[in-house]
Amino acid sequence: MSVSGLPPRHILSKSTFMRGCQCAKSLWLHKHHSAMRDALSETQASIFAQGTNVGLLARELYPNGVDASPADAFHYQQSVADTQRYLAEGRTVIYEAAFQFEGVLAAVDILVMRRGRWYAYEVKSSTSVKEQYVTDAALQYYVIRNAGIELRDIFIVHINSDYVRRGNLSVSELFYKESVLNRVLDLQAFISGQVRALKKVAQLVEAPDVASGAQCHKPYTCDFFGYCHATDEAEDDFGAANIDAAALAGFVSTLQYPLYFMDFETWSAAVPEYDGHWAYRQVPFQFSVHRQDAPGAPLQHDCFLADASGDTCSTFLEALLPVMGEEGSVVVYNKAFENRILNELKEDHPFSVERIENIQQRMVDLMQPFRRKQLYLPEMQRSYSIKYVLPALVPGLSYDTLAIGNGGDASAAFYELRTVADAAEVARIRKALLEYCALDTLAMYRILQKIQEHL
Description:
Elements: H1 14-22, H2 24-32, H3 42-58, E1 66-67, H4 76-88, E2 93-101, E3 104-114, E4 117-123, H5 131-146, E5 151-159, H6 171-174, E6 175-179, H7 181-186, H8 188-202, H9 225-231, E7 242-243, H10 245-253, E8 259-267, E9 283-292, E10 299-305, H11 313-320, E11 330-332, H12 335-348, H13 353-361, E12 363-365, H14 368-371, E13 375-376, H15 386-393, H16 407-417, H17 423-453
C-alpha cells in the first residue's frame, strides 16, 4: 500500500494488456506518447457510447449491486480499495469490481456471489463471443484469482441476435450468458507469460521495432495507425492502371433510362428500441436520389431525412416509393446493402412488397466494374470503395471537405440528433447529413460519366 492507503499505480490494465497482445509498439506508444494517437471518429465515439449503455443495462440482470467504478481513468486505485471494502462488508453484487495483482489491474463488469461462490460476468455489446473476449476474460481471471477471489465461473454476456422486441424491452431475453471458464483456464500459462513480457515493453526507453502489418487492424484498428503509417518510409506500390473497355461497355449496355442514382443511410442500436426491431438492425433514415431522364439530360434531385424522434422505417418508405418511378435502372454502389434494407422493409410493409420488388429488380451495382478491376487506377489504392474511386476518377470531387465523410459518421450523427436540444445544432447536423448523402449519389453519376469516357 502507498502512503495514501491505496495500492500503487498499476503498470498494465486490462485494456493496455490487450493492446500489447495486438502490438507491442502500440502499448509502448500508449504509455509514452499517448498524444500521438489518432483522433477519435464520430463512429468510434458512438460505438463506445453504445457499449457503455449496454454495460449499464446488463446490470438489471443482477440488480441492487454497489458500484465500484472510479471517478475517472486516473483513480482506479480508489476503485480497487472500494472493491475490497465492499467485499469486507459482505456485498454480493458489485459492478466494476476492480482488482490488482503485481502491477496488473483488471475490473469486471459484474461480480456476483451465489450460494457462497463468486461468479464474474463481462458484458460485451457484440452478438457473439470473439476470441479477444476470451483473452480479455482470461486476464481478469488471472488477476482476480491471484488477488484472493476464487471464481466458480466466468461468463461473457453478449447480445442475443435472435431477440426481436415486442412491447416492453425484455432484458433477460436481450442478453445471452456464455461460460468461458474452460477456455480461460487453458490460457492461464499464456497470460502469465504475456504479463511478464508486456511489463518489460511498457518500461522500455525506446519503442520496440514493429513493422506495420495485419496487427494494425486485427482485431481492432490501432489508434496509432496514422502515426505509424506516416512515419513509414516505404512507399506503397498500388499496381498498374487497368482499363477493360469491352467489359465496361458491357456494363453500360445494361443501363436503361431514366437512371436513378440511389443511396440509403441507416442507423443501428445494440438495444432494439422499437417493435419488430432486433439488435443492430440497419434502420433507414435518409435517402438521396439523382435522376437523369435521358443521356445528356440535366440531373433532378430528391432527398429525404427523417425526424430523429421515432421509428423511421415507415416515413422513409413513404417518401422513397413515389420518387422511384416504375422503370429505368436504379444505380447503387454496393447493391447488397440497399437490397438488404429493402428486404427488411418488405417484411414490415407487406402491402408495399410489389413496389419494393420493382425497385430491387431494376438495381444495377456500380461497384462491380471496380471490384472486378475492369477500371483501376493506382490512385484507388487497391480499394473499390467509393471513397477511393471518386477522387481517383474525379479529382475535384471528394468527401474530405464535408463535415460528415462516411456512412458510419452519418449514422452516429443521426443518433446524436435524438438527444440534441439546441435548434441551431440540429440544423447544422441535418445540413451536414443532407450534403453527405447528396454527394454519394452525385458521385455515382460522375463515376458513370468517367466509365463512359473510357469506352
